[in-house]
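Feature request, filed as a ticket because there's no other form

It would be nice if the structure record came with a short human-readable summary line next to the tokens. Right now we just get the raw output. Example of a typical job, pasted below so the devs can see what we mean:
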Amino acid sequence: MDLATQPLTKPKRHDAYYWRLLATACSFFLFGLGGLCLRLVIFPVLACLPGDANAHGRRARVVVSVLFWRFIRLMARAGVLTYEVQGAERLGRPGQMIIANHPSLIDVVFLIGLVRGANCVVKHSLWENPFTHGAVRATQYISNDGRTDMLDNAADSLRNGQTLILFPEGTRTTPGQAPIFHRGGASIALRGAQVLTPVIISVTPSTLTKAEPWYRIALRRPHFSFRVGADIDPQTYAAQGSAPQASRKLNDDLHHYFNKELAQDEQPKH
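Raw output as currently delivered:
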């Protein structure tokens, strides 16, 4: 028989595929609805409480963290995904900069939910989205809008004792490719971080990747793994030369570290 004439076999869909598709749609709807409720109800109430702008921002970040983690737990209970976190107790220290790779759309939701009250550098388009711009304004998250003062704002947040989450790729990783880090993250760490902590994120099978619509869910239930790596002291790099040289060296080392760790995660387990 001519193999070219044989019909192609469609990959099988496992783990209650159609239920997961429905639950994913409901999750996205709930996320958007929650964003509107925060903007129209919760944050206006918080703004009436006493305190300066910094206090209002801290309250808003704590509220978002709590709700994000409940959202993750809801998706897990609904069977949309599974997850594991190793080393979460080492996250959330004052002046700590958390740096992570970015394989999926909801990595940010996971990390903000894990680290209560953390600040975060997020893409500027969230300020223009009606479902999210109320939250990013109230929380005083830092816009990655390409302006030079973004680095100063991020470093200031660290010097003020906040925990800062940053994805140095600036966007989700292209499937099948290694992450490519921009040097801005290393520059921020050298300017203001007390400690730099890497978080290695892997998703199997991949889902909600770059340019992938929400409804194209994985054939199997995706498993998210978050592994907190060893702390890095930025000052050991700052002492090695000029600021550009130190930034380049730190960024290169981070890039090598993440590629090595992710390659190990992809190896078959015995």
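Something like this underneath would help us a lot:
The CA atoms of residues 20 and 79 lie 7 Å apart.
DSSP finds eight helices and seven strands in the chain.
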